[in-house]
Protein 1
Amino acid sequence: MQKIPTLFVRDLVNLRHVIDEVHPDCTWVGDKEVPQVATAKWDGTCTRCDDDGVWWARREVKAGAAWPDGFELADEDRLTHKVVGWVPIHQSSFVTVWADAIDASGRMSDDWEPGTYELCGPKINGNPHQLAGHELIVHGRDKLFDAPTDYEGLKRYLEYFAWEGIVWHAADGRRAKIKKRDFGYRWGK
């Protein structure tokens, strides 16, 4: 799970927002020659089911801090030196709500397709999607067929958008994202 670059460059005056300049790693977004799909970005916490049916929780570790037991490194931020990786789900503070989501699905924890999932629900991030219970939502599930890729078009599109943001997935594995808050819009409650 590498950190997904934001589609536009951050505003150096206000790093919470973006400016009308495409990030160098994201120039492929909107390129008709690059097979890609846009999907809704859910607001929860990232989990992963590996090829053996073992579940992991995303974990960020600050620069210089000790890694937790069982930590699997996925990526390091070159600017902040924070590392991102995975810990076994049973070491995560989200293990109880993850178990609720598994129970609610009616499936066993080892009966899921390998991949990454967003764990969302009442006890996660203030439940901005207002879900009645906890759910595991496979990343890339909700495809968007009308999402613009230009700055002004996205600014208008996201103003009343019902999710946290958009993630673009290229067929070759590259990804890019944009969030409502990147344009200064409130998200959630």
Protein 2
Amino acid sequence: MSLIRWDPFRDTVSLRDAMNRLFEESFIRPSTRPTLDTVPAVDVVETKDEVVVKAAVPGIKPEDIDISVTGELLTIKGEFKSETKSDGASIIRQERRFGTFERALSLPTQVVADKAKAEFENGVLTLTLPKAEEVKPKTIKVKAK
């Protein structure tokens, strides 16, 4: 067993480095990582025959959503439109986000995009993407001789 000599300044150096990283990431190099404020939250569920994706897009109209599948990449695009009222009222607080969004997801397997179904109900977009035949599990019967 070896003893490590206590250095009172060792922890302050690491604290200083952490503070430097915090300021660099906040002011010098702002993060471009999307947050749930800018993209819809999604759930992805894989069953034996299909992949089901549910996306929360409250306040958006179904015609303002574009969905595309390229290989194993699913892209959901849309736009939250602003409700502008010109009756002379001034806005006290506006917390809802308006503008476009785009969310790209890697699917766990190949799907048949031509047979996909998209349903929209109560602000939830549900995509049902059937798996490609070549990736579905196949059972092989063993015959005894």
Protein 3
Amino acid sequence: MSDWLFDLGNSRLKFCAWRPGLQFGDMQAAAHASESEMGALPDEVAGEVAWVATVASDERRHALLQALRPRFARIGFARSSMRFDGLQVAYPHPERLGIDRFLALLAAERAGIGPVLVVGVGTALTIDLLGREGRHAGGLIAPSPTLMRESLHGRSARLPASGGRRVGFADDTDDALASGCEGAAIALIRAAMTDAAGRLGGPPSLWLHGGGAVQLSPALPSAEYRPALVLQGLADWVGGAAVAPVGGR
């Protein structure tokens, strides 16, 4: 019987089956508009241990727990730490580093490819630089293009929350919004790449993950899209952590 890995964000729940020491199964993802939708998991989602990484609200965390308890004997939560194997984070208070960022960095460090700029595009846009020898150099947090659009729509209903395409100079409001919000994110990523290259003496690799990453990828040709990066980091964390699962039926 497989364990399962869960990445609970503010907009989506991603999950997959996993057997220790083996490659994990196909990632599944579900948007959650309300806490009540957490219980609508496929029937095959059940096993011994559910391993969870979450940056979502307490309400959504509780809703996920309620959905998992009848399906799993134990439930364990990943936590950020200052050091984990070869990873050393820059935060003096590692509990303030979002677990999604921590796990994405851990997956990048375990890949052993050298310096990497790790960019998550979800509700927030997060940018973290993993330097040489597994040293986290710090990061940036900004609104994602989706959150920018939703915020503008919330202040002015005439500005649509979605739609349009990114162009140089738009002659339509939808395109102008897409161009401005996506362009702001792309510009920040490019600036971070330039800063990182100056610090390192050469450009790092660029990895993108998160639900909004696909939209930005065409403007960042050097980027690699890693949709399951947080789940991969969670598998790495479970495999190396000397922790006892908590919770249960």
Protein 4
Amino acid sequence: MDDDQTQCTKCGQSWLASEFYWSKGKLKQPCKRCFAEWHRNRYTPKNGTDDAPRDCVVCGASYRPKGRRFSIYCSPACNDKARARTPHRRDTRLQREYGITLAEYEALLVAQDGGCAICGVKNPAGRWDKWHVDHCHDSQKVRGVLCSSCNHGIGQFKDDPALLRRAADYLEAVASV
């Protein structure tokens, strides 16, 4: 065994230090491979999924899902392709959740000049930043289309205009200090 190699206590093989995890400045036993095998056997995946290879429903490529989560697409690109091919799913979801059609949703965006009703941003940045249908949680009436930031912001203020006004007053008072 070379000086720069360490023997795993589980498999007995000699590995470089990079094949072990570190904890408090020391190499942690067992090696990364044995630890991964132990972890895979110890924890039961959620939703009955496993880490066995599966086929993408869009492109048919065989892939191994990351993190043993439920997935049917091999990549975000295939997910986007599947969504683009099935606009009727989006229409159905909009009708079920908000009582509007896809055409009404698109008309809302056009009426808002293609941007967020509050901040006016035209293209929400990032994969997870998408348009949100803003609606009253009491009456279920649709108010407009918002970006993620504005939607989460008014949600944090519990859709209460008085609370939002107090927050604006606070910001104006602090800005003058």
